[in-house]
Structure formats: C-alpha cells, structure tokens
Amino acid sequence: MADGATASPRLRGIKHGEPLGVLVLPGWPGPALTRLTQALAEAHINLPLVLLHPGAAPAASHLAVDSGRQEDALGLAQQVSRELGLEPPQLRRAMVALTLYPLGGSLTLPAAVLACLARLDIHPLALGTSLSSLVMVLEQASLARARAALAQAFGLPDDADTAWSLRVIQEPGPREQD
Which pTM does this prediction carry? Predict the structure, then answer.
C-alpha cells in the first residue's frame, strides 16, 4: 500500500454465545461492587463478562450473567443496593456476547466494527479487545443483522465455522477441601 495506507481488517471467524442478562449498577463505588461480586460468587453465579467503572460518578458498571441465573443475580444486587443505600440495579435482558476473530493483527478493527454497526443503528453495550479477538455485548434482537453486516464488511470466509455454544457449569455448592 502506498503512502501509509492500510488494508481493511479481515475476519477469520465470528461466534456468539448463549443469551445473557446484564446487571447495570449506576454509580456504584468499588466496595459495593466487591460486596456484590462476592455474594454472586458465594451463590455460584457466573459472570462471563464484567465492565467496571468504580468511582466514576455518572458511569455505570455492567455485570453479564447467564440468562438462567439473571433473576437470582438481580435479587442479590437489589439486596446490596438497599443495604448500602445505592441507586437500584437494572437488569437488561436478552443480551448476547458476539466474538470476532481477526485475520492478522489489525489495530483498526474496533473502530471499523463500531462504524459498521453504527450505520445499522446498532450500538454495543460493551466492547473488549485482545490480540486474538474482539468481544462485544449486543441486544439479542440485533444479533442477526450485526453478524451479517460484519461478515460482509470484513470478508468472513464462506467456510468459516460460526456455530458456538459455551456454557460454564458450576458445582451447586462449595468443593470439599482435600
């Protein structure tokens, strides 16, 4: 490429998991988040994705929970909220994590993905990146449109495996110590 131009990012895979519920904790301070996450761990409620903003007054932290345990997680969050006098939590249902696997190391993929989705009026709740993937949380209702647009925009190969189902299975109670 001439004059410093770079090629558009390309994908080698795109996958999504089971539906999620997302607890939104508006303005909760760090100690309250710690108390809630401890309660969730004691109740064996998995947090597949966490986006924390402790201490940032207008920001909200987001905890993704498996859809089968979202009501339990909401109940624990409401209890902590009442005990500490915090703004009540909200539960966003029918969310999903969508993972993109880039072909090669393109640092422009996050910006390009957000621009592609914005053209469809799809705005991820959260987005995280690593060297090997990009994960975003979307409303489940927009999943099919997002997948199709991203596959077309970033050249997903026709033979790419896009099926994925991952469930974290936790034991119903604490383990016995050896």
Answer: 0.73
